[in-house]
Design goal:
The complex is a heterodimer of chains A (875) and B (126). Chain A is an alpha+beta fold and 875 residues long. Chain A is built from 24 helices and 24 strands. The C terminus of chain A is likely disordered. Chain B starts with a strand and ends with a helix. Classes of the chains: A alpha+beta (875), B alpha/beta (126). The interface between A and B is large, with 35 and 38 residues.
């Protein structure tokens, strides 16, 4: 297992605490025992000495009494006079000695002559100094060293009744004896003999020679030991406690007993105890280890889990469960931690949620932005494309219009002549028809581009149905006739007299289909049938032909853009292949349907069904004899107008064409070249109608229209434009234009508009003109005033007061025409202009002219009226 | 319907002509002023429905009067009558709140038109 640092520390702490306690305990126990042991030495040594001495005395007493008994026996034997030979005596003596366990026995007479002798071993000299015994009658005891042994010797006089000799018996103090005492006192015993030659260790209970040396060295050191006192000496290995005391002292020999104890020895039991404690210590240590491990674990594991949980929480794992089953603070800590974890988790999830939301919102925003951007780009691209196409078509159509217009004009002129050169007429016809064909193609391409850009909007109007159909008939009659085909219209009555539809687009569809039918029919007939399906509220147009027909395979792609039934058809019959596609898309705009049925080589039938949108006048006509009253002018109708019309167009060709077309109506025209001029002209004069080109320099048609309408300009303004997309339409109507006319304009449409806005009736005659309105008095007064101030003009000119002169001229310019003197006004305006541009001489000349004119008028007025009625100005 | 009209023009001949024309159109209350200050003072005393205003006048010009009246948000149609009928003046007049602009010398039809518009506006006003 791996230890965490905390676990290690805890473990070490607990183990060392335990060991410390243990060692301290041990030390105190040991030192207490040691002190106790030290105190015990004295007692033990004293007791040991006493016991030793007692033992010695007991042994001596006992020996003495034994010796006395034997001595008495000897005395008795002597008393009876039993003489015995030496042999017998020795035998008896050895018997006695054996009985009392003596090692040697000797009988001497008063002269100290040996009588008998016995020894366990040979030659112990038991006899003391002769003097010692000679005068004594009492039993004597002493110690003697004989050879290497120490003998306890007892001497008893043999009294019978007088002393006849001495019984001397010796008992060797053996190691056994010493050992026995040692057993009693548990102290080592050394018997040291001090002689003149030196000290010698006679007997010792200690086995090792080393101690002897130490001991002897100590005794022989000269500082003779204090008898009966405890001494402590140190040896290399041990500390020794000694108690020397004198046992016997003779002249020659001194017997010293040294009781010896070693501190180590006395502590032996303690040491043993200590030794016995070792396993317990080991067990204790082991338990301490286990305990500390357990404690460390019990602390560090939950802490570790908390730590781990904290780590995992910190790394984002909020669902981490913390298992801390321990009681007390850790559990509380864990519980608190869980609470904190929950709180953090909650907050985190909230943050995450918010972040997600923000991210999502950002993503949405981003996507929306991208989508918007893409849409914008797509729109811009489409816009650019359609603008480009519109511009290109405008650029193509403007010259085309001029070409067609001029060729028509020429044809017009030629037709009035009696003898028109036929080839010229043909050439011009070719010009015209080719131009129209080109125009048709351009229109188709433009239509397709508009369809693709969703820019086509239907313009629903109430129109007469039958004339519309008739127009188609008329338009294609000549084409059909030229091919030898019968082109007829089949009306299935009842039909609505008027319908609400976009006539331009409906005509376009029908013309296209009929034109196709004629084109692809070599012989036979083409029929346009029209009927009203009242049940389905559908207006149905059927175009039947007996032409080449269309195979089923070809029918599938018939209405696709840019395809024709047969690729070879474009070579044979021409055309762009857009016609049917445009028809289909227009029909779709009408919310109708287009269908084809065809058999190869037998002919085709195209059916166009459009929802019937009722006109305000929903009458049905039952036959063709009474066509609805047409308000539309017929082809050849040129309305005769008594109107003033302002035309604004920057293109000179267009101006000429407009002028040509408009002059036929008899209207009074004012032609201007840009929006600025248009505004200035419109404000300066009265107009019944304004034809305004949309694209002009200086100020475009829309801006000019807006300016005029803001100033309450009431005459209708018709916008001429090539671009009739929705945005332009909105702009046009927002500016206040009455309607718009597509360019190149259709002459018939233009005439229809003129009729609508100017009417064929004469202009309101009640408009007063200046002459009829003004009192003659006012006129007279005006010219008289002018006449009176004329002298000041001369004066000003003479003194070169050009500024004041200019002001005066300005006034005349503004007022003279109102009073019926337009020539005066014009002249004044000219003078003002000359003065402004510093053409002073010319100005002066004209001033003279003006004054002359004023004089003339004044004279005329004066002659026609009575001077009395003229009020002279008071100031 | 009776309209009241004020003519502000320094040129008396102009004023007289216009007044005569307006009288012919059936307008009875015609007030004349010969300068802008006079015009605004008179207007304060006697508000009118329609004002024909000359631009080029001594002292304060017509634009000053126009903007002053528009600042007071007076409910009056103001038609500029000026010989200076160039586009800049026209546009300035529109910016300052003119309701019409007639270029001198003018046709009476233009004046008639203005009167008609004013009549219509007054009629439609509750």
């Amino acid at each position: 297992m791996s230890w965490t640092p905390l676990q290690k520390k805890l473990f070490i702490l607990v183990v060392s605490l335990f060991s410390l306690v243990y060692l301290l305990t041990l030390y105190s126990v040991y030192s207490a025992a040691y002190n106790q042991a030290e105190r015990d030495y004295v007692t033990r040594l004293n007791v040991g000495r006493n016991v030793f001495l007692n033992e010695i005395n007991v042994t001596r007493g006992h020996f003495n009494s034994n010796v006395e008994t034997i001595a008495k026996d000897w005395a008795l034997r002597s008393a009876v006079g039993q003489s015995v030979d030496t042999e017998s005596i020795n035998s008896i003596l050895s018997n006695h000695a054996a009985r009392i366990d003596a090692d040697a026995a000797l009988i001497v007479d008063n002269d100290m002559q040996q009588v008998a002798f016995f020894a366990v071993r040979k030659g112990p000299q038991l006899l003391p100094d002769g003097l010692l015994l000679s005068n004594q009658q009492k039993q004597q005891t002493w110690l003697a060293r004989i050879g290497s042994d120490v003998f306890l010797i007892s001497a008893k006089p043999i009294l019978a009744p007088a002393r006849i000799g001495w019984l001397i018996m010796g008992k060797r103090l053996s190691e056994d004896f010493i050992s026995r005492i040692r057993e009693l006192i548990s102290l080592d015993i050394n018997l040291i003999v001090q002689q003149e030659q030196g000290s010698e260790l006679a007997i010792s209970s200690m086995p090792t020679a080393m101690h002897h040396q130490t001991l002897l060295a100590h005794i022989n050191q000269g500082n003779s030991p204090l008898m009966g006192e405890v001494e402590i000496i140190k040896s290399r290995q041990d500390e020794l406690v000694l108690m020397p005391f004198l046992l016997s002292n003779t002249a020659k020999q001194k017997f010293i007993v040294v009781l010896q104890d070693s501190i180590a020895g006395s502590l032996k039991s303690l040491n043993i105890f200590m030794l016995e404690l070792v396993p317990y210590f080991l067990i204790g240590v082991l338990m301490a280890i286990l305990g500390s491990y357990y404690i460390a674990r019990s602390i560090s594991r939950p802490v570790g889990r908390l730590l781990q949980a904290a780590k995992r929480v910190a790394s984002g794992h909020y669902t981490e469960q913390i298992h801390v089953s321990e009681r007390s603070e850790l559990r509380e800590l864990a519980a608190e931690f869980r609470l904190m974890q929950d709180a953090v988790m909650e907050r985190e999830s909230k943050i995450k949620e918010q972040a997600e939301q923000i991210k999502l919102a950002d993503k949405h925003k981003y996507e929306a932005a991208i989508a918007r951007r893409e849409q914008q780009i797509a729109e811009q691209a489409t816009e650019a494309k359609s603008r480009f196409l519109a511009n290109v078509s405008h650029e193509i159509r403007t010259p085309l219009t001029a070409m067609i217009g001029y060729s028509d004009m020429l044809l017009d002129t030629l037709s009035t002549r009696q003898q028109a050169p036929q080839d010229e007429v043909q050439a011009i016809n070719a010009l015209s028809s080719n131009g129209r064909h080109l125009m048709h193609i351009v229109n188709e391409v433009l239509d397709v581009s508009k369809i693709e850009a969703n820019k086509i909007e239907l313009e629903y109007l109430d129109v007469d149905l039958l004339p519309l159909i008739e127009n188609i008939h008329i338009s294609l009659q000549s084409l059909a006739a030229s091919k030898g085909i019968d082109f007829s219209i089949q009306h299935h009555f009842p039909l609505p007299a008027r319908v609400n539809t976009d006539p331009t687009r409906l005509t376009q569809i029908l013309l296209n289909l009929c034109n196709n039918a004629i084109k692809f029919t070599e012989q036979g007939q083409v029929e346009l049938a029209i009927h009203l399906n009242q049940f389905d509220q559908q207006l149905c147009f059927e175009i039947r032909d007996s032409g080449v027909g269309i195979s089923e395979e070809q029918q599938k792609h018939l209405f696709d853009a840019y395809t024709q039934a047969d690729q070879s058809t474009s070579r044979k019959f021409g055309g762009t292949g857009l016609g049917l596609y445009i028809c289909q898309e227009l029909t779709r705009l009408f919310e109708g349907s287009i269908d084809v049925q065809s058999t190869l080589h037998q002919g085709s039938t195209f059916t166009v069904s459009l929802p019937w949108r009722k006109a305000q006048d929903p009458r049905l006509v039952m036959n063709g004899e009474e066509p609805a009253l047409s308000t539309e002018p017929s082809n050849t109708d040129i309305p005769q107008l008594n109107a003033t019309i302002l035309c604004a167009d920057d293109n000179e060709d267009n101006r000429i064409l407009l002028k040509y077309v408009l002059e036929k109506t008899g209207a009074t025209l004012t032609m201007v070249e840009d929006g600025k001029q248009a505004v200035e002209a419109a404000l300066a004069d009265h107009f019944d109608l304004v034809l305004m080109d949309m694209q002009m320099p200086e100020m475009d048609g829309v801006e000019a229209t807006r300016t005029l309408k803001q100033l309450g300009f009431s005459a209708p303004i018709v916008m001429l434009t090539a671009n009739v997309d929705e945005q332009s339409r909105q702009n046009i109507f927002a500016a206040g234009a009455a309607c718009h006319l597509g360019k190149p304009f259709d002459t018939q449409k233009l005439y229809a508009l003129l009729t609508r806005f100017c009417g064929t009736e004469k202009r309101a005659p009640e408009t007063p003109n200046a002459e009829s309105l003004l009192d003659e008095e006012l006129r007279i007064q005006y010219i008289v005033n002018l006449h009176n101030t004329a002298s000041t003009f001369r004066h000003a000119a003479r003194h070169q007061q050009w500024q004041s002169l200019r002001t005066e001229m300005h006034k005349i310019k503004g007022t003279a025409a109102n009073y019926g003197f337009p020539d005066l006004g014009q002249l004044a305006a000219a003078i003002e202009s000359d003065l402004q541009h510093h053409h002073l001489q010319r100005g002066e000349r004209k001033l003279a002219e003006l004054i002359a004119l004023i004089e003339g008028q004044y004279t005329a007025v004066r002659d026609n009226t009575t001077v009395d009625s003229v009020v002279e100005p008071s100031s | 319907m009776n309209l009241s009209v004020m003519i502000v023009d320094d040129e008396s001949a102009s004023r007289q002509f216009l007044a005569a024309a307006l009288r012919k159109m059936g307008i009875e209350l015609i007030i004349e002023a010969s300068n802008a200050i006079d015009g605004i003072k008179t207007f304060a005393k006697q508000p009118v429905d329609l004002m024909f205003l000359d631009l080029n006048m001594p002292g304060e010009n017509g634009f000053a009067l126009l903007s002053a009246l528009r600042a007071q948000q007076k409910n009056v149609r103001i038609v500029i009558i000026s010989a200076a009928g160039d586009l800049e003046n026209v546009q300035k007049a529109i910016r300052l709140g003119a309701d019409g602009f007639i270029v001198k010398p003018f046709k009476l039809a233009k004046v008639q038109e203005s009167v008609a518009v004013c009549r219509k506006a007054k009629a439609s006003r509750p």
